[in-house]
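Morning. Coffee machine broken again, so started the prediction first thing and wrote up yesterday's gels while waiting. Chain of 310 residues, entered below exactly as on the submission form.
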Amino acid sequence: MNPESIDVTRLRWFVAVAEELHFARAAKSLHISRQKLSHTVIDLERELGTELFVPGAQPTQLTEAGQQLLRAARDIIAHADEPEPVAAEDVALRVGFVPGVTVSKWVRIWGERFPDTSLEVIPIPMAEQLAALREGRVDACFVRLPIDRAGLSAIPLYRELPVVVLPKDHTLSLFEQVGMGDLEGERIQDSGDIDAIASTIELVAAGVGVAIVPHSIARLHARRDLVYRTMMGVPDTEIALAWPAAQTTELIEEFVGIVRGRSERSSRTQAQRKKTEPKKTTAKRSTRGTGKSGVKSTGAKKKPAKRRGR
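Came back before lunch.
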């Protein structure tokens, strides 16, 4: 089977296991059950007609076929995440995203829901996320908090667990979770500059200390000679969607709805359409000033009937 014919989601799941070399950790990072992940890998092996992981190996190891699929899968996933270039004059909405944010799902939903309205997604260095919004380079941007929110609308989307990046043969690679106490005596590289993280990762691979980074950044720069483990006692990082509050357009609101999981039926466009549709009313014959028969009253009071004697 040609790897390009495999669903990208299944390839992502396989890559998660291949990089973690641990089914339970990979399932946790993907927010799916371990059983579902195992069945996916088994189905892939059956379809490809070869084993991707060495049977019974502890820790988990890739076979040669698994290593080949990993290389192909990374290329396919990277290509799937690349936005198609759009002519600037034809762009209706421009959305930026900082390193570690995957926007392919939202771009796909937008294309399905608004096929005639163009959307351009633009990679933005984290150091420029605020400037890109202030200068109008993008209409909205997926940012990594904290950020100066003055004049901005921002909706937090999700939090990322921090992980420590280690050489594959490091003693701490045997653990699923690592605390700051475990790193005592280790040289912890400065990983505050996300845009320069590739150089930091290279230092770790060379055996010069370890690095603590957001989970998505570790996956973005995954290498066969490195592993990453969940850090305990270190604050999470948070991803949000932000845009200039004064420039909240209907397109921005529609995109926010997609990102927040609002269904097409409950979209703001549908709601707005319902508001503007004329209400169907049934004409009623006025009975004001009429009796039950509908004949207009003269306004004279009706004399009470005289009481008959017995």
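The beta strands are 93-97, 119-123, 140-144, 152-160, 162-167, 177-179, 211-214, 226-232, 237-244. Going to sketch it on the whiteboard this afternoon.
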